[in-house]
Amino acid sequence: MAVKKLKSKMSRLETIAELLEEDNQEIEASMKLFAEGMKLIKECSADLDTIEGKITIMIDGEESEFEGSVEV
Questions:
Q1: Which residue range is the domain that position 27 belongs to?
Q2: Domains in the chain, number
Q3: What is the DSSP string of the chain?
Q4: Is residue 72 part of a domain?
Q5: CA angle, residues 38, 41, 39, in degrees to nearest 5
Q6: Running DSSP on this structure, what letter comes out for residue 22?
Q7: Other C-beta atoms within 10 Å of 16: how many?
Q8: Model-level pTM greater than 0.85?
């Protein structure tokens, strides 16, 4: 579920970037798009940190299982 939300946010960020690249935007509209984009960037960053944390926990859990069973 979190990955779908992240993909949706990333897609919206791409759309915002494309809109901001166009020259026909009013300054006020551009500012609103920019603010929305910055908010989405912060949310995506937090989402990625959460996902990274979960992956690290999974990897660390698997490593500790293997460490006990492998002889060197």
A1: 2-67
A2: 1
A3: -HHHHHHHHHHHHHHHHHHHHSTT--HHHHHHHHHHHHHHHHHHHHHHHHHHHHHHHHHHHHHHHHHHH---
A4: no
A5: 40
A6: S
A7: 20
A8: no
